Amino acid sequence: MNKEFVIKLFFIFCFLYSNTGHIVAQEGHKQLYEKALELIEEEEYDDAKEILLKITKNDPNNYLAFFELAKIEEEDGEEEEAEKYFLKVHSINVEFSPALTRLGRLYQEMGKEDEAKQYYLLAWIVDPRSEPAILNVSTMLLKNGQFELAKNLLENAPVKFESEDNKNQLIFNMGFIYYFQNDWQKARETWKPLIESRHSLAKHIEGLYYTAGERE
């Protein structure tokens, strides 16, 4: 047998053998991750956290595990820990928009408006089709009085806003745009489904809804 061929075969074997352990480890992490998600669904957060920490210790680039850890810490009111994990996710995968959106929301809850705006905008830049990112940026524009920009963003969004929560937020934001552009009739027509269904968002617009009616 050709000596050069034998050497090549040896190195191929070594490569395959060394990667077998990695593949098995990755499969094990996948199973653990799925178990952690089941525990989160059952609100067994401490057990889920223990599994996720084990995953991240053995696989420090597993951004999905860090993301779930961040959400658990946020749920527990541990803002600094949640921030640390969300930033870790971003450092591993800069294009993972959900972490940026959640980080923006966390900063907003912490009263850090400038940081919140920064990450909301970044979430939209890395994923222009992200419904939460589009809605958050439109809300940011509304707060800054940039109604036409907000309107253009929402009307030209490359998505259909299929989830019920996002549809309602879209209605909420569009109604505000019409209201502050003095289009009272359109504001009322847009907000009407929220008012009639007694949606939780309705309490924020009820007064404006009836004021718009008086101004039509």
Low-confidence stretches: 5-25
> What percent strand?
under 5%
Q: Tell me about the biggest sheet? A: none
Q: What is the CA-atom radius of gyration, in angstroms?
A: 24 Å
Figure out the total of helices: 11
Bin the helical content.
over 70%
Describe the structure.
- The chain is an all-alpha fold and 216 residues long.
- It has a domain at 129-216.
- Helix content is 78%, strand content 0%.
- It is built from eleven helices and no strands.
- α10 runs antiparallel to α11 (206-215).
- The longest helix has 39 residues, at 3-41.
- The protein is elongated, with a radius of gyration of 24 Å.
- Mean pLDDT is 87; it is low at 5-25.
Short description:
With 216 residues, this protein is mainly alpha-helical. It has a domain at 129-216. The protein has 11 helices and no strands.
Secondary-structure blueprint:
Blueprint lengths: L2 H39 L3 H14 L4 H13 L3 H14 L4 H13 L3 H14 L4 H13 L3 H9 L8 H17 L3 H13 L9 H10 L1
List keywords for this structure.
single chain; 216 residues
